[in-house]
Amino acid sequence: VQFVESGGGLVQPGGSLRLSCATSGFTFSSAVIFWYRQAPGKERELVAHIAGGGITYYIDSVKGRFTISRDAAKATVFLQMDSLKPEDTAVYYCRANFGSWGQGTQVTVSS
What we know:
Elements: E1 2-6, E2 9-11, E3 17-24, E4 33-38, E5 45-50, E6 56-58, E7 66-71, E8 76-81, E9 90-95, E10 105-109
């Protein structure tokens, strides 16, 4: 079981980034995939998740700005992040409710 995050970077406030989570080693179509983030000095928090059937969930602070989606053919989950704010700065991780944490991808929102 593996989760590999990519797509992070430095962006100005109001900008956009698209994160990718490439998965392997399990039945992707039936798994719920979660995006988490951990800001400096803070605990890791759930950001969004998507079920195999496409049902999604977002925390209030990202609703209307972030969009989670999945590509079954590529066994990949995406997190489109728009209207980014400095408080979105964190390391972003993806995972199912099993498996180990990956290395994450750094998102920095700063002018």
